[in-house]
Predict the 3D structure of the following.
Amino acid sequence: MSKSTTKFYVERLLSIIAAVILLQTLYFKFTAAPVSVHIFSTLGLEPWGRIGTGIMELISGILLFIPRTSAYGAGLALGIMAGAILSHLLFLGIEVQGDGGNVFILAIMVTLCSIGVLFLKRNDLKSLLNTFLNKN
């Protein structure tokens, strides 16, 4: 297996892991599950923060599944997860309503996968940035 093939499969694996985590949490956000309502109420963002975050996670998850757009999805996911991690550290605590820190751990996993995707797609991002900068 060539280096580029291995890179492609690792990027796909990281993208799919992040996307699956993001998409499976939508059930809790969009059905107003008690833990989700508690989190966003504690942050003073219920219900619009919960719904808005869910929509952004849906967009990110879809972008991550598509190889050509996975870097955009990873960037969006990284921003969302930065907010989630900071919310846990500053306001919610690691463990929320006796979940054993699972929600926090999932946020860390999405963050690490997103960083990996962005690292593996760095050349694509550099060429996109150069194209954008050269047109202006």
Remarks:
- The first helix runs from residue 3 to 24.
- The mean pLDDT is 96.
